[in-house]
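Folds abound. A case:
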Amino acid sequence: MSDLLNQESFASMYARKPPWDIGRPQRSFVEAADRVTGTILDSGCGTGENALYFAGRGHTVLGIDFLEGPIREARRKAQERGQAAEFVQKDALTLLDLDRTFDSVIDSGLFHVFGDEDRARYVAGLAHATRPGGRLFLLCFSDEEPGTQGPRRVSQRELRDAFANGWEVEEIQSSRLEVRPDLEDISFSEGGPQAWFAVIRRLG
């Protein structure tokens, strides 16, 4: 899929409110919050709920998304809630030109949208943006989710292979991606799509 088509697809979803825009942080990140330390990059932040949650806990947070609409909404939320999170329109595939590094990176449902070539490019960018010893907290669709609706399924092996060089996969746990309860034209497993929640440490 071309970048333009991908952008148009996601823009169309945000025009209607996408399935993952649930108005609160994903439970997996809330449960892991005490392990998320220091400065944070939210890669593919959408309308900012995860980033704003961590900003509320006192972290310095940068959220990036390649669409203008979600970034505009995230900034509105930050102002409305009095949170100091920073939101910038930026493609996560261009992290190699980011001039900042972070103690922690969170990825809520971005990794699984990439094909093999872009996946490698994304992981290289994450390595550039994550300080040695820093951690990536990644929530993605699991290959245990039945059906074909939604994004590409990811296996544990694919996760381990993607982060085989320069990273240590500390754990991969079964989880759920929370979605809006009022979805009409798409259906997932009861309780939300089955997912993996991975904690991956940057070596160096």
